[in-house]
Amino acid sequence: EYTRNGALGDATTSSLEYGTAMMESALNNFVGFLEDLVAVSAAEE
Fold first, then answer.
1. Which of 13, 18, 41, 45 has the fewest other C-beta atoms within 10 Å?
2. What is the Cα 34 distance to its own chain's centre?
3. pLDDT value for 8
4. What is the pLDDT of residue 44?
5. Are 8 and 2 in contact (CB under 8 A)?
6. Is position 9 within any domain?
7. Within-domain flag for 38
């Protein structure tokens, strides 16, 4: 179920700790992706 602002699900069942863990995980994955992208780009030069 989407809310009017585009959020997915019921945020009232979440917690600060869960949100923090989710954000840290997403950021770590994104940083890893960027590091891989830079490494591939450098290897192609």
1. 45
2. 13
3. 83
4. 87
5. yes
6. no
7. yes
CA distances to 7, 13, 18, 19, 32 from 23, rounded to whole Å, are 15, 17, 9, 6, 14
pLDDT digits (tens, 9 = 90+) for 27-42: 999 999 999 999 999 9
Q: Is 4 within a domain?
A: no
C-alpha distances in Å from residue 32, one per residue of 24, 25, 28, 43 = 12, 11, 6, 17
Average pLDDT over residues 8-28: 92
27 assigned to some structural domain:
yes
Q: What is the DSSP string of 10-40?
A: -GGG--HHHHHHHHHHHHHHHHHHHHHHHHH
Domain that holds residue 34: 15-44
Six-digit token pair at 40? 């591939």
